[in-house]
Structure to design on (816 residues):
């Protein structure tokens, strides 16, 4: 039997920026519920009063304090929990956990990190370690050079050859990353990124490759399932938060689907993830070639989507796995009779589309890139792609009308598929489309209504 | 493409849709598969011989159908050299397809193969009906042209899908005999890729005088009790204590040869997400499956034990002999389509062959 935990600390995601961390409330709340189910006393640190997880009926003790090493250490000192979960508060909680570990806080107060180990988290977060770890087992990753200074970045770009992709390490929402085609652009971006992040990465640019994600669950007995896979409508180069995402993948053959699935499982086992993780691939559109872009050893935006799309309670399962349960003994909460060790087979299509509010800003660029500009998301379920896709179209049209009435003029620059469709939806006759949608909405049945839609998608 | 097609079940339940592929009437046992990818592999799996297949995933044909590519006499993209189902029932047909390997649409492929399909069917409702009533016989009526119902499980289906003359694949040791009861191409490639010689023989092949190190009994269509000849031959092999691996129908044949019994499942397991627990361990594997019959573990003689069990419904998914090198798995370790997590079954078997 796994050791029994009496008191467990859960880190929330901290202050929410619109559209950037709403999904973490969803996963955090599920985790707290799972812990309560098991009769474990649950402490939550999250300063955001506008979240469900801080409601008084969920955690036993809520600290409305910033998710930063200083405050969390004080909570640990006062509450003396046996275990801590770092994976339910997004990047903020993960970074905070890494800092606490570095400062020796967990050791000092004898707090066990539940789920994925600190070592594995570090291996997914530090780009150099990550690349080394994956190369060990022959997994292909984008050619990438980590640098901490401008001169090194320029040298790295010359080694790989322009165009290159610039990413900042330890960043949320793709902050400061982007495409650079020459020294000048690179200089600009690197100086901006280094202001936020200690490390920048110069990477091989995979323009036009398919962007595929898998959600993988693993228990401590090495059982592994991929709960859902997703395909981005907008290929590599556009942030997932800016992209229309379809679950399950629509253009992959059996060989491709299972090649990537096997790689996901191989990677997750090698890293030693326990609980849930998200893995992103770039797949060449006309060959078997692939790259593993990144692994998130935590619940992410995509996990929330996958969870809602499949009805598989990822966060709840991840919390129980972190406490030592096995996937086999856990029941599937949808059927209540079958095992949680399964991969949902969908008989419907799920579309997630971003919502923007760029009209409010006069000089903002309308070009989508690897940074995130959307403020919310719409998710819809249908029996075909078209049916599911109508819902975001309606949302976009409603937004367009509002802004049209406000300002009376419009000027767009179309540079990416998602935004182009957003734009196209505006030129459709509003009344006609919405009528079709209203007529067909009767069949847009959601088998997972208990999970609700994304918090931000309140326009529909 | 706009002809009307009707699927009529033996109990009178009917569903209407539009015909694609080759417009002709067809009959068979109506079964459903829940896989989200892999229709080219699924449709060419010989275990579907005589069945009308319903796919629960609603968008079919998105990535077209690959061109035939062969090397070493083995087809890369398909599980056999023809479409095995007698009819296909789907919800939405992708008329436009796109994939770098695609050479034609699903519609074209079915047309060329002379197989009828119906699209525009509420496959979710049909599947729910089949789940509650069990697999039923059915027929596809096109433009009012009717046929009678026929029960494929009363026919000697294996004889229709087995190989006529023995074929030799690969080089190297050990030498494995593969009893082809409707063998999927991937079982062959999985063996050949592990560097062994495979002699693929027909289901009624007599092993007398044959030199071999191990025997694999393949998957195949229909009721295992129809395979009398194979069962008799396998029983002889058991007396010689030759290493045996049964896959799907092969596992059921093993059970029958050992003196056990098999029975028909209500609606079978057809999909790519069946969890199987290895008994006595904490390990669970997600497997690809396609079977309508199962082994009754209780009926097995004492020297045999259950090896895998289905985590969903508790049915048997694998058997093994406690002392002798006889093993059978109900799932498909070769996947295609489906997850390849149980590929190790082939390695285990070859280890067993080397050991004996």
């Amino acid at each position: 039997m796994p050791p029994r935990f009496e008191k467990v600390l859960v880190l929330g995601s901290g202050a929410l920026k619109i559209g950037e961390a709403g999904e973490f409330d969803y996963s955090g709340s599920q985790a707290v519920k799972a812990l309560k189910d098991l009769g474990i006393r649950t402490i939550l640190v999250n300063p955001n009063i506008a979240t469900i997880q801080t409601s008084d009926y969920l955690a036993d003790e809520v600290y409305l304090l910033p998710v930063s090493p200083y405050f969390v250490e004080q909570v640990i000192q006062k509450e003396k929990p046996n275990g801590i979960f770092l994976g339910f508060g997004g990047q903020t909680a993960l970074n905070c956990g890494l800092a606490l570990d570095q400062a020796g806080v967990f050791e000092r107060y004898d707090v066990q990190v539940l789920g994925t180990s600190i070592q594995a988290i570090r291996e997914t977060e530090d780009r150099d370690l990550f690349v080394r770890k994956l190369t060990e087992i022959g997994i292909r990753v984008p050619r990438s050079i980590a640098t901490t200074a401008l001169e090194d970045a320029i040298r790295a770009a010359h080694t790989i050859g322009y165009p290159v992709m610039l990413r900042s390490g330890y960043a949320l929402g793709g902050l400061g990353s982007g495409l650079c085609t020459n020294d000048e652009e690179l200089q600009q971006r690197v100086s901006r990124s280094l202001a936020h992040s200690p490390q920048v990465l110069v990477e091989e640019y995979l323009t036009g490759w398919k962007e595929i994600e898998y959600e993988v669950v693993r228990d401590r007995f090495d059982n592994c399932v991929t709960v859902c896979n997703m395909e981005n409508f907008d290929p590599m180069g556009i942030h997932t938060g800016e992209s229309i995402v379809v679950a399950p993948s629509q253009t992959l053959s059996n060989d491709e689907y299972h090649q990537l699935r096997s790689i996901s499982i191989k990677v997750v086992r090698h890293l030693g993830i326990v609980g849930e993780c998200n893995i992103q691939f770039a797949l060449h559109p006309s060959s078997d070639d692939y790259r593993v872009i990144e692994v998130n050893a935590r619940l992410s935006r995509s996990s929330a989507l996958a969870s809602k799309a499949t009805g598989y309670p990822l966060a709840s399962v991840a919390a129980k796995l972190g406490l030592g349960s096995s996937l086999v003994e856990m029941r599937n909460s949808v059927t209540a009779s079958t095992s949680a060790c399964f991969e949902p087979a969908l008989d419907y299509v799920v579309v997630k589309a971003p919502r923007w509010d760029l009209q409010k800003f006069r000089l903002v660029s309308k070009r989508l890139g690897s940074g995130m500009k959307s403020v919310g998301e719409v998710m819809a379920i249908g029996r075909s792609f078209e049916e599911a896709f109508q819902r975001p179209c309606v949302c976009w049209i409603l937004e367009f009308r509002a802004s049209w009435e406000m300002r009376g003029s419009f000027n767009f620059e179309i540079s990416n598929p998602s935004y182009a469709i957003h734009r196209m939806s505006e030129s459709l006759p509003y009344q006609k489309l919405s009528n079709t949608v209203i007529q067909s909405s009767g069949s847009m049945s959601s088998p997972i209504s208990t999970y609700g839609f994304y918090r931000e998608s309140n326009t529909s | 493409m706009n002809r009307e097609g009707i699927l009529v079940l033996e109990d009178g339940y009917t569903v209407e849709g539009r015909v694609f592929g080759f417009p002709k009437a067809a009959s068979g046992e109506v079964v459903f598969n829940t896989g989200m990818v892999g229709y080219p592999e699924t449709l060419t799996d010989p275990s579907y011989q005589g069945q009308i297949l319903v796919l629960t995933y609603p968008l079919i044909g998105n990535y077209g159908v690959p061109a035939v590519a062969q090397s070493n006499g083995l087809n890369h993209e398909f599980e056999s050299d023809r479409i095995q189902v007698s009819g296909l029932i789907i919800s939405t047909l992708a008329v436009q397809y796109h994939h770098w390997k695609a050479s034609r649409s699903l519609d074209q492929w079915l047309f060329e193969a002379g197989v009828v399909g119906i699209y525009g069917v509420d496959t979710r409702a049909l599947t729910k009906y089949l789940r509650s009533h069990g697999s039923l016989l059915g027929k596809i009526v096109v433009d009012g042209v009717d046929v009678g119902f026929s029960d494929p499980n009363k026919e000697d289906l294996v004889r229709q899908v087995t190989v006529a003359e023995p074929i030799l694949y690969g080089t190297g040791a050990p030498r494995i005999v593969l009893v082809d009861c409707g063998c999927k191409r991937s079982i062959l490639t999985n063996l050949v890729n592990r560097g062994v010689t495979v002699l693929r023989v027909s289901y009624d092949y007599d092993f007398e005088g044959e030199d071999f190190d191990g025997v694999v009994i393949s998957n195949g269509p229909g009721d295992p009790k129809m395979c009398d000849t194979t069962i008799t031959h396998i029983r002889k092999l058991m007396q010689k204590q030759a290493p045996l691996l049964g896959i799907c129908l092969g596992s059921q044949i093993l059970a029958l040869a050992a003196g056990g019994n098999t029975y028909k499942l209500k609606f079978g397991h057809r999909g790519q997400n069946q969890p199987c627990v290895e008994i006595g361990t904490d390990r669970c594997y997600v497997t690809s499956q396609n079977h309508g019959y199962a082994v009754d573990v209780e009926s097995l003689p004492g020297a045999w034990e259950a090896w895998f069990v289905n985590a969903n419904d508790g049915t048997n998914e694998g058997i093994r002999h406690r002392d002798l090198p006889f093993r059978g798995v109900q799932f498909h370790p070769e996947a295609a389509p489906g997850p390849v997590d149980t590929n190790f079954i082939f390695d285990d078997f070859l280890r067993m062959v080397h050991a004996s």
User: Anything to note?
Assistant: Helices of chain B lie at 39-43, 106-113, 123-133, 157-161, 185-192, 228-239, 249-257, 344-355.
